[in-house]
Records
---
Amino acid sequence: MTESSKDWESGEESGFVSIGTYRLFVTVCGSRRNPGEPIVLVFPGAGASLESWREVQLLVSHFARILLYDRAGLGQSDPGPTRASGVASAEELSQLLKAMAITGPYILVAHSYGGCIAREFLQLHLGDIVGMVLSETGAETPCQYHEMQYKKRVLGDHPLSVIRGELGVGHSRSRDPNTEDTRTRNQLEEMQRLASTVNEADLRLKREQLQLSRNTRFQNVPTGHNVHRERPDIVAEEIHWVLSSVKIAGHQSSQLSAVARMLNRIKHLICRRT
């Protein structure tokens, strides 16, 4: 089946989509959208392919349509004609969605450097974005509209979830109890002070992003940087919260409640395992 004959708005579809002189690899799944329902767009971190988001995709596909894609030069996608940047990648995604005839509204889900791209995309499509989930973002290359977006609270009352992996920075790794610790007391105290300083700075950067919206929640979770790999259930739960906060058709409320119960069961199972 050619890309032009595919129905990207229903069923599970994967394939290459041409945007000018090169192709991007895309996969979309989840139930067909009703009019006015958003589709979830995922922005992986630097150097990451869509494969790292498969577990989140599986969970989210039970309650929303979700699109994963490989940026130019990553995963299965062709190399792009220009050097990658936040602006170029946001424009690239805009071309991709146009080629696939996928219109808004959109919920943006970003990890790490993907947050910069998502913020650039937000600026290009302000009227189409109805919610965001930012996981471990904020410490990378800032969006060119960084301060302006905060000042204007560009998301307005649209929901925003910020996830922080609290073990990602400023956290002392556990040592092998069979290994002698040769560090002096002064060295240990200095390391603890440094870790505390880094941790406070990271927390401040993450919480700063809450200025994008008046409707927010902040999740401090016991994981490292790759929250979506370690706890895909938490990321899916935040996407579900954003979706349930968006004003959509009332007949979906019962379905979303059932999904919330399912995600809670998954979370309990993962917590037991860990």
---
Amino acid sequence: MGPPATGPPAATTLAVKSDEPWTENLTMRVICKDCKEDPPNVVEDFAAGDMICGSCGLVLGDRIVDTRSEWRTFTNDDQNNDDPSRVGDGANPLLNGAQLQTAIAFGGGAAAKSRDLSRAQNKVNNDKSTKTLLAAYKQIGAFCDGMSTSKNVSDTSKHLFKIVHDESAFRGKSQDSLIAACIFIACRQCKVARTFREVQDVTKVSKAEIGRAFKYLEKFFAARNEKMKAAVVEAGGVFNPDGSGYDNVESTTPKDLCTRFCNLLDLSQKCTRLSQDVAAKTEMSGILAGRSPISTAAACIYMASYLAGEPKSAKDVAIVAGVSDGTIRNAYKIMFGEKEKLIRKDWTAQGKVDLKRLPPA
């Protein structure tokens, strides 16, 4: 018998598995119907507003929109200004209104009709509220520059003043005292506290007026926050204190003032840290309870300068802090009697400070 008949081998089916699921390609592509090149060689002629095939020159589309920057220089319009933008500035959140007014310019031999149009347009767009805000913002900016504060303090002061101005809560009050109080509150909120005396030296508003305006504003902002919180809770939401524009911060501590005063006295970082530590322990122990934070900070710096080997006289510290040297000496006498409680023992053990350097009270 011959070998058994064998048929053709059974066909095997190979299943191709793909890890990615099938998705429809919705990308729209413009391809020249004559060249049918892929990828297409398409050129956009913005001057003519046409879309052209770069290979054969066939026009594939017309009246296309130029999506590039709207920057063109018009020498006659911008009067040789270097800024090529003709879309205007961004909206200023510190001003009211849409801020989309049109200005009619004239000058340099303009016709009388142009002058009349400009005057009429200025009368229509004359907003006293905006003029008042701009004048106040100019003052705030000048005062903050005089105090050598950051832009954050200036912007916060302007925002606080705008809230007060929009609410019209202090009609009849001196605007200068309100501006000074807003700057004082802004310095606290931005963690760069200033004293009433420092604000007085710049704004030329007395400490008494700044203090009164500060108390009025503090009550006003606290009541406003409570009103906003009640409205949000009543609507079923969660109140965000950061969105209220006012943060009720604690009063200035002697530790907050030590850094700036030491910097003005050109003291080292070691002396600065030592004065801050002494100020914190003085406040915690209540040794100088009832005294102002300024005099407490000045006395702590006076003691720390001798402990760190960088002695400063009471008169030098008094000039920077704005208090009398007698006030510093009186506070130092009290601190000298409690020096063991104010100075860390590990600093004395490591030889970082020497109590023998302290002058006698």
